[in-house]
Task: structure prediction
Amino acid sequence: MKFAVSVSVLALAVAGCSTTSAPPAEVAAGQYPPGSAGEALESASAAVEAYQAGAKGLSYPATPEGARQFIAAVEKDLFDLSVIGGRAQWVNATYINDDTDALAAYFGAIGTEKSVQYAKAAAVYAQVPGLDFDTARKLNILRTALVLPAPSTPGAATELNEIATKLQSMYGKGRATLDGKEIAGDEAEEKMGTLRDPRKLQEVWTSWHDNVGRPMRPLYTRMVEIANDGAKELGFSDVGAMWRSNYDMTPEEFSAMYDRLWAETKPLYDQLHCYTRTKLNQKYGDAVQPDHGAIRADLLGNMWAQEWGNIYDIVAPKGAGDIGFDVTDLLVAKKVTPTEMVRIGERFYTSLGLAPLPESFWQRSQIVRPEDREVVCHASAWDVDNKDDLRIKMCTRVNADDFVTIHHELGHNYYQRAYNQQPYLYLNGANDGFHEAIGDFIALSVTPEYLVQIGLLDRRKVPSADKDIGLLLRQAMDKVAFLPFGLLVDKWRWGVFDGSTPPTGYNAAWVGLKQQYQGIVPPVPRTEADFDPGAKFHIPGNTPYARYFLARILQFQFYKAACDMAGWKGPLHRCSFYGNKAVGERLNRMMAMGASRPWPEALEVFTGTREMSARPMLEYFAPLQAWLAQQNKGKQCGW
Result:
């Protein structure tokens, strides 16, 4: 499925995602109507000027009380800026043109400059002895929450935001070709999941990577230089180290946990890779896919080979493989529209006792792709006013992938609303992996039982126990297959940011990591003229990716805890907690904490444990792993 990203209010403010219309020349300062965009712009600009004027010294005394006063002022300022920023960023993402690009870049520069200055001041206040817990925590959030910090060099923030905006727009306008005809990015993604002609798959894959990635390379290289200078001014060695400092542990501790979780799950992935490669060899033959070595990237049903569920028809085991239904077919047969798909997703959350989405959600969300303009189709969830202006942005198609993505996206929205009473700097998940995992674990409950409960599947067609391997394999083709990709995206960026991967080796490092961790190779030779990382939204979009890897682990911890709470007695992979109010109450209790406490405490509230572990995931897939090992006997596994 297409992976989604939550647009958090903190990210909008700190990353400088803010824009609005320029004020009319004839309106004097202070003459804007209260609450208008003009008043917000005037207030934001004045705040920047005032802070810049005192940048040489602290705005408040270097005492515990001074630090508290500093935090209070920052929270009010960033809250106000994030609201106008959210509205402007929404317009830029849903109506791409030169004007909205320019506005996003301009106000983004304001946001970035403010955030960098606040982060530098926070680094000073953080050294003050005697700070209370909340002040110290919020100072650390300010210092580490920047995604792309700009240095204080004149013009650097403007240049950085112009580059970031341009990169995202280049992605949004990207095109591939099929049979020589141009197709949009969302169609290209869909074709990668449905085509079975290797020549056509190669054309779509290659044209997308060439057309989208290649032009980004010089801009991305310059962006890394600027952002690294900014990170150093904040006391970090590079941007990657700064990102890894935002998990209630040191960068080194985080890297160790990251690698430990991969080591726990790698044996399961290796068995899945071996089995899938055998099936692809049987379908396409040695000339297209040999029965040994790495797998050709375009054969796995996904533009980035990150999830393989779209080729389940190729790998389905005889007998157990036909689970008796296809969610896409069920939706089409019931004539379910994209909007009704979102309504179904909402009903899952309300069945847990959570409140319905506000009416404004249905008025303001982009649920389908507009026909009259360029938009960013990549699915995302928004809370524009930090309270109740919840929205999703998708180019929904009636298929199983988008049905699951909707459940995921709404998880972001319900998380955003649950913590909307927290102070501004706590308006976020316990860590960014939590934000992704909430929607993912709800989506895990899209089981046959759930499909019966919502009227999509006839109970007589629920697959019997002898189909469990098929059900598990279908899940593993997405959930397990994703793990090494989720791991390597930020490993690539960490190398880029720390200099161990120089610009002259950007593409070779990307291809090398995909081969090392995924056992995947491109369908055509690649060179340093290419920039394949840019063909993945989260690279030009500058969205840290470790969260998705962590979410893959966390979602199974959340899911098992929910199933235990619901008293589920059957196989874990068949559990549905749809309609269980006790699960909803405890879930909301964890979500309402926002970022106010270290993530192990939030984890404990819902699961009873403070340790992130792959054990629940391995328990879920244990029958499949044993079955795969039997199927792979005598095979030359590995690559």
